[in-house]
Amino acid sequence: MKTKNILYNLVGVIILLATGCVSDEDLNQVSPNFDTAASFWQNDTDALKGVNAVYGSLLTDGTYMRSTPLLLDLKGDGTRSNSPWSAMANVGRFNTSISDAAIYGWAFETYYQGIYRANQVLDNVPGIEMEDSALKNRILGQAYFLRGLYFFHAVNMFKNVPLPLVSTEIYHEQKSQEEGWEQVIFDLQMAADLLPVSYNDVSGLDAGQVGRATRGAALAYLGKAYLFTYDYQNAHDAFQDVIDLGIYSLVSNFRDNFTENNENNSESVFEVQFSREAGGVDLGWGGAPVSGWGKTSARAITYGPPTFGFTDVQPTWTLFNEYQDELTIDGEVDPRLDVTMFYNKPGGMMLYGVDFASHYGGNDTYLNEIFCAKYQNSDGDRENEYDWRSGINERIMRYADVLLMYAECLNELGQTAQSYQYIQMVRDRVNLPDLATTKPNMTQQQMRDQIAHERFLEFALEGHRFDDIRRWGWLEDSAKLDWLKARDSEFNSYVPGREYFPIPQAEMDNNPLLTEQNDGY
């Protein structure tokens, strides 16, 4: 049985707004069955419960239970969707409907739920008298990190969004994307300054708890935010700080990054903690938490191969073929292919205890197709994913990503020769040839193309590809856009502006300070 050390209990802090006349004040009684904001935040235990609630917003349908991976994956050229659910299928076709907020609207709502909860911590914890000042700093650091992470997603996917920094105001004005990134960077820098390298060396209520945000996680996302805003020097420095911590390394088995085995390993900089053993068995669709909610993911059933899951997401043949462009030192196909997708492999491939060719032999469509393998419970004792309850942690920041982003910064700063060693660290794990020998003395542009190739294969189905495409300016480059269309027909329906999702219409209608919808909608 897998043990999770992070606390999963969600805390609902209720703010009561008294609207009666002064003469009726005596009639406004607080129910003794509920905590108010004034009565809840009293001690270190309350503070820890409060920040645990902020983590809770990572576990529901709008975020990493299902919606956020879909929104990050489906627009890339490594994925496609034939889902019968139009709200899902249309994400990758850039046809998201402003009149149907399914999936993207749930994500938007949950990011702001997480932001609101983080603001409650940041508003109230500083006023709590705590003997353990280090614990207090760690709690505040986690709140800054999580708010920065939720803001990161909101700014990155929805562009010009509100940036609420307190929990006591209802409406917040729309900000520019530049202002959004500034806030993300501020929050992550605050988190990096307050968080420990590890919880193994601290004392207090959170001592030894795995899964909480660390300094390395904050620095890695800080570097990513700088990278996304083309501040390569600051990004370089943040990634260098992560490397210099000396606590991260690539695991030898690439597959260990996507199963329940070896979770929170040496490569994991930050991962969302799911478990089949924690909580109840109900699915956390969103809204106010209830005691029956489990802490499981629906990614596996959503991405799962036919007869084992819904197959709402599939890899592209472009991705399949690119894994075979370069053989390993031993003349084998890149081993990441078999970790990333199921296919009719010569010699056989097992999934959920059966052989691919044997299982799909009676259906030529399935037999000759390719399906997602990452984050599937396919090599254990599970027969399928139809209980909707995967316990696999979502590794949202891996050390491999830090290394390749660091290599990208070096290249953009004119230090192309120095990029090789960090790229090769990732290639060595899968036994690929020495890049410095096979492609020596690359120009800066050649190295950009190489890094794009390396990232495509290393992070397939992990929510990175479309972010890379957009930030590299490929959608504004007619030659690159034509190339993408040739690789993935879903790009044929791309129109400028649709690289972002619309701000949900309900938000536009309900918030008088939201005045501009994103271009293209």
Automatic annotation (TrEMBL):
<keyword id="KW-0998">Cell outer membrane</keyword>
<dbReference type="GO" id="GO:0009279">
    <property type="term" value="C:cell outer membrane"/>
</dbReference>
<protein>
    <submittedName>
        <fullName>RagB/SusD family nutrient uptake outer membrane protein</fullName>
    </submittedName>
</protein>
<feature type="domain" description="RagB/SusD">
    <location>
        <begin position="267"/>
        <end position="521"/>
    </location>
</feature>
<feature type="domain" description="SusD-like N-terminal">
    <location>
        <begin position="95"/>
        <end position="227"/>
    </location>
</feature>
<dbReference type="InterPro" id="IPR012944">
    <property type="entry name" value="SusD_RagB_dom"/>
</dbReference>
<dbReference type="InterPro" id="IPR033985">
    <property type="entry name" value="SusD-like_N"/>
</dbReference>
<feature type="signal peptide">
    <location>
        <begin position="1"/>
        <end position="24"/>
    </location>
</feature>
<dbReference type="InterPro" id="IPR011990">
    <property type="entry name" value="TPR-like_helical_dom_sf"/>
</dbReference>
<dbReference type="Pfam" id="PF07980">
    <property type="entry name" value="SusD_RagB"/>
</dbReference>
<comment type="similarity">
    <text>Belongs to the SusD family.</text>
</comment>
<dbReference type="Pfam" id="PF14322">
    <property type="entry name" value="SusD-like_3"/>
</dbReference>
<keyword id="KW-0472">Membrane</keyword>
<keyword id="KW-0732">Signal</keyword>
